C-alpha cells in the first residue's frame, strides 16, 4: 500500500482511533505526542484534521557545533501532501516557525505543520486557514538563539515524560484531540485494526443511549474486536 492510499484510508478516523490501534500494536502511549495542540485555523476548535507523511526539520542552539547546516531554505523542499514537523531545542524561548513559512508551505501543497516548540505570527496562519499545531506561541524569530541543522532526518520529541522519535515518512495525524505518529512500518496494520474497533464503539454508544450499562455494552461489542 503506497503512502497516499494509507493517508486516504486514515482520513475518516480521529487521532484517538489511531491511538487505540497503536496501543494494540504495543506502541508506547498509542503514538501520542504530548504537548502539541492546535493553534490554527482556530485554537482547539473545529473539525480540522491533518494526515500525511512527516517531513522533518531539526533546529539546534547556535553554539551546537557537530552538524553542518543544510544549504537553501527548508521551506522550499516540502513535498506536496506532507506534514511539516519542526523540532526546536528544548525550552527554547524564541519561536521557530512564522507566517511566511505557512504561506510557502500552503503554496507547496503541505497539509499542515507541527512545531515541537513555539510558533509566531499566529493571526497570519489563521488568515491562511492553514493548520498549525505547536507547544506554545512567541514573538521572536529563531536566529538569535538557534539554527537549522538537519532536514528530513529523525527527530526526537522534546519531552521529559516520553521517548518518541519522528522519522521522515512516518504518518502524522493531528486533530482537536492532539497529534499521533504512526511508524510507517505499522501503518497498514493500523488501517486493518481501526474499522472493527470504531464499529464496536459505535454499537456501545448506541446501547448506552438506550439506557444500557457501559460494562454490559462493552463486554458484548468489544469482546470480538480484531486483535493483531
UniProtKB/TrEMBL annotation:
GO function terms (MF aspect): 4-hydroxy-4-methyl-2-oxoglutarate aldolase activity; metal ion binding; oxaloacetate decarboxylase activity
Database matches in Gene3D superfamilies: Ribonuclease E inhibitor RraA/RraA-like
Residues reported in the UniProt entry to bind substrate: 98-101, 120
Pfam families assigned to the protein according to its UniProt record, in alphabetical order: RraA-like
Binding residue positions for Mg(2+): 121
Cofactor dependency: Mg(2+)
InterPro entries given in the database record: RraA/RraA-like, RraA/RraA-like_sf
Origin superkingdom: Eukaryota
The entry's keywords: Magnesium, Metal-binding
Protein name: Uncharacterized protein
